[in-house]
Amino acid sequence: MEYVIETRGLTRSFGEVEAVKGVDLSVAPGEIYGFLGPNGAGKSTVVKMLTTLLAPTGGTASVLGYDVYTQANDIRLRIGAALQEASLDDKQSGREILQLQGALYGLTKPEVAQRIDELSVLVEFEAIDRWIREYSGGMKRRLDLAASLMHNPDLLFLDEPTTGLDPMSRARVWEEVRALNSQLGTTIFLTTQYLEEADELADRVGIINDGLIVAEGTPTDLKKSVGSDVIQVRLTSDDAVAAAALRDLPNVEKVDIGPRALLVSVSDGAAAVSPVAVALDAVGAEVAELTLRTPTLDDVFLELTGGRIEASQ
């Protein structure tokens, strides 16, 4: 497979400080790749190297088949980047921003007009002719996203695209990211500190910590790697009888009798909930509460880095 992004042993040092210590990455065409890491882990440094804003110290890296050391200009013409802090002139309108962006990439006036029409539909941008100073944070983020797409890039870097947005604006950006990927086939490299965002959007996730990739895989596989689904059962009757009734059920891996509830570890929580409830009813167990808990990316992050990512926001 010819990868859109491929790095081998990528490093970057700042004096005696080694920020990135040998990163191997492979991102396939059409993929949404989520890149997670706490502050100071090397996440931003990797992104700056891939977008040719920072030269690597060592290793190899190619983006869209071009070498980041020797073919930076070719990469810049073919990627888009929506950074966390958008630099927008308050004295311009949204349309003027997009026209300028198109001109910088060499688009003709008819091509610029066509792209603005296409992007206005894609990102549902209703305020294109208003001054930037009148924009909300969510509107500025959507305009920045549209600007990064003016030249129809094959690869889009999104750096924490929903940081600071309210839940409604965040959901809107998620819809736009999905549309870019599904409708246009755009490969997206998404850095985020919102684990829910990576879980919702990413086909695969890479977690970087202390300058190294410590885990990589689909969100589902990563969550399974740290533990089973757990059905928690709070009873008002005999725990031991209920536990015995559950141990031989399909999908049940083990049953622990905790201080306040039975903890039933299962391979497939959704499939096991109903058989567990039926088995408990068959032995006359009096169930006060039955809940299903599945591992989250936060659990993965805690297991691999020793901290929860929310603490670093």
Short description:
The protein is built from 11 helices and 14 strands. By secondary structure, it is an alpha/beta fold.
What does this entry look like structurally?
This protein has 313 residues and is an alpha/beta fold. Helix content is 37%, strand content 27%. It has eleven helices and 14 strands. The protein has helices spanning 43-50, 72-78, 94-104, 109-122, 137-148, 167-184, 195-201, 219-225, 239-246, 269-282, 297-305, and strands at residues 5-14, 17-27, 32-36, 58-63, 66-67, 79-82, 155-159, 187-191, 204-209, 212-217, 229-235, 252-257, 262-266, 287-293. The strands form three sheets. The chain has a six-stranded mixed beta sheet, with helices on both faces. The chain has a four-stranded antiparallel beta sheet with strand order 2-1-4-5, with helices on one face. α3 packs across α4 (109-122) and α3 (94-104) runs parallel beside α5. The two termini are 36 Å apart. The mean pLDDT is 89.
Q: Layout of helices and strands, plus pairs?
A:
Layout: E1 5-14, E2 17-27, E3 32-36, H1 43-50, E4 58-63, E5 66-67, H2 72-78, E6 79-82, H3 94-104, H4 109-122, H5 137-148, E7 155-159, H6 167-184, E8 187-191, H7 195-201, E9 204-209, E10 212-217, H8 219-225, E11 229-235, H9 239-246, E12 252-257, E13 262-266, H10 269-282, E14 287-293, H11 297-305
Parallel strand pairs: 3-8, 3-9, 6-7, 7-8
Antiparallel strand pairs: 1-2, 1-4, 4-5, 9-10, 11-13, 11-14, 12-13
Helix pairs in contact: 3-4, 3-5
Oligomer: single chain
Radius of gyration: 24 Å
How helical, in percent, are the residues? 25-40%
Count of distinct strands: 14
Structural class: alpha/beta
Distance between the termini: 36 Å
Strand order of the largest sheet: 6-7-8-3-9-10
Beta-strand content bin: 25-35%
Described by the principal axes of the CA atoms, the overall outline is: elongated
Round the mean pLDDT to the nearest integer and report it: 89
> Uncertain regions: pLDDT < 50 for 5+ in a row?
none
> What series of H and E elements makes up the topology?
EEEHEEHEHHHEHEHEEHEHEEHEH
Q: Output the number of helix runs.
A: 11
Largest sheet: 6 strands, mixed
